[in-house]
Amino acid sequence: MISGYVAGAIPDYQMSSFLMACYFRGMSEEETLTFTRLMLHSGDVIDLADIPGVKVDKHSTGGVGDKVSLILAPIVAACGVPVPMISGRGLGHTGGTLDKLESIPGFRTSLSVPEYKNVIRDIGLVMIGQTEEIAPADRKMYALRDVTATVECIPLIAGSIMSKKLAEGSDALVLDVKTGRGAFMQSYNCSVELARTLVRIGNTFGKETVAFITDMNQPLGTTIGNWLEVVESVECLKGTRGTNDGSSDLMEVTHALAGSMLVLGKKATTISEGVRLSKEVIADGSAYRKFLQLIVAQGGDASVTENLERYPLSKHSIEVRIDEDGHVGEIDPLEIGLTSITLGAGRARVDEAIDPKAGIVLKKKVGDKTEIGEVVAVFYTDRDEVVESARTRLAKAFRVGPSPPEKRSRILGLIDNAGMSEWTPL
Ligand code: URA
After folding, report:
1. Quick check: CB of 130 below 6 Å from ligand 1?
2. Whether residues 47 and 82 fall in one domain
3. CA nearest ligand 1 atom 1, residue
4. In a domain, 426, yes or no
5. Which residues are catalytically annotated?
6. How far is it, in rounded angstroms, from Cα 296 to Cα 400?
7. 242 CB under 6 A from ligand 1?
8. What is the pLDDT of residues 106-144, one digit of tens each?
9. In terms of domains, do 327 and 295 share one?
């Protein structure tokens, strides 16, 4: 059925029924493994054995404001571990790495297999999407799941993620399994089950796999929307943001995942040693230089990241204010993600184009003090008809209380072959 779908013999409406059946009935462990194997072999499986070093990749199950890959991949590559990465587009209310990269003028996320191999060989880093050759079943089914409300399903997520990751030629994998209101798995127990399933599949297929469980109960960092997220990533890579500000949580997750990737890539013996290396390549500028190399290698215009202010502006730039005093207790990430789609930052239909400029900048994060009339967010859109509803929705997404909630790490646990361990903030 999967090969028939890829070849065009099975139409979307029949595949939609299959996806809906999986959504309601789930799959057994054996079915999930078989499904993943068939998705993987719908295309080529790349062999990168001729590239020296342990190749390590990362994948997130999807969140709001989750631009970790844009910062993490250059960090790890700058530390000398090759990173071959196949990512996805925006899915449901979450953003996708490909759409973010494509907001950089000229950046090509669709490379042939020889081009893919040349880029990783030349600069130790490559970031592309599923193609007609690599994971083509996921390429088609991912887009269909996005618009048929069949994303939140453990075996479908597992098959989707692992077919890409097993096809790309990496030797080891770090997963970021999000949990909470802005994640596909809102309950902690379901997220743990998803993480265990992904780790089991990775190890069954001979790829050392580790999964972090991270909190997605507020957006990560301060930006939501493709170009806005590139800007935040560039600033974090340059080290001008990410310490004691709204991007600190983003860098906490990024450094922890980098630490783990550097352990798997044999450049560090402990995660904390890996975190130290990760911070060093931000401080000495080599992670940012690696990002610029990536843009050039994949056809992008690197001068835009040096002149961020030259990017075109949206027709509307609207401030959102709230009329309460106190501390921000919650910022509903689901509502923020859904509103960003109405602004043009995501898709409601398979064929819809993305507006790379559209999105939201948070001026307050959970725990921040706020006063009546203060600006808590600014949003950007070209669409006249959504301005009023977006303003109301975003104001409601902020909940204010008399005192700040307890400060918690965004990292909740770590799962590997040996089971689950607690995370001690570094
Ligand atoms: N990321 C993927 O690649 N696939 C999913 O199904 C969910 C998140």
Report:
1. no
2. yes
3. 61
4. no
5. 59, 138, 145, 160, 164
6. 44
7. no
8. 999 999 999 999 999 999 999 999 888 999 999 999 989
9. no
**Per-residue pLDDT at 426 exceeds 80:** no
For the stretch 195-231, pLDDT in tens is 999 999 999 999 999 999 999 999 999 999 999 999 9
Among the listed ranges 135-139, 246-250, 315-319, which one has the minimum average pLDDT value?
Answer: 135-139
332 shares a domain with 289: no
CA of 277 to the centre of ligand 1 (A): 29
Burial class, 276, CB count within 10 angstroms (exposed 0-12 / middle 13-18 / buried 19+): middle
Compute, in angstroms, the gap from residue 157 CA to the centroid of ligand 1.
Answer: 5
Q: Is the CB of 141 under 6 A from ligand 1?
A: no
Q: What is the per-residue pLDDT for 422?
A: 85
**CA–CA distance, 211 with 348 (Å, rounded to integer):** 30
Q: How far is the centre of ligand 1, averaged over its atoms, from the C-alpha of 96 (Å)? A: 9
Token representation of residue 239: 């080290």
> 171 C-alpha to center of ligand 1: Å?
20
Model confidence pLDDT, tens digit, residues 50-99: 999 999 999 999 999 999 999 999 999 999 999 999 999 988 899 999 99
Same domain, 165 and 276: yes
Q: What does the alpha-carbon distance between residue 237 and residue 241 come to, in Å, rounded to a whole number?
A: 8
**Gap from CA of 61 to ligand 1 centroid (Å):** 5
Structure confidence by residue, pLDDT tens digits, 319-337: 999 999 999 999 999 999 9
Q: What is the pTM of this model?
A: 0.96
Pocket test of ligand 1: the residue of 109, 157, 176 to mutate, having most ligand atoms within 8 Å of its CB, is: 157
How many structural domains compose the chain? 2
161 lines ligand 1 (CB under 6 A): yes
CATH number of the domain bearing residue 327: 3.90.1170.30
Q: What is the DSSP string of 152-192?
A: --HHHHHHHHHHHHHHTT-SEEEEEEEESTTSSS-SHHHHH
CA–CA dist 178, 194 (Å, integer): 10
Is the CB–ligand 1 distance for residue 62 below 6 Å? yes
Asked if residue 163 and residue 25 are part of one domain, the reply reads yes
Q: Do residues 250 and 388 share a domain?
A: no
Q: Please check whether residue 30 lies inside any domain of the structure.
A: yes
Q: What share of the chain is helix, strand, coil (3-state, %, to 5)?
A: 45, 15, 40
Residue in the structure block whose two tokens are 């994303």? 151
Using the structure block, give the residue that is written with the tokens 């759409």: 99
Q: Is the CB of 157 under 6 A from ligand 1?
A: yes
**pLDDT tens profile 164-186:** 999 999 999 999 999 999 999 99
Q: Where in the sequence is the domain holding 393, given as residue range(s)?
A: 316-401
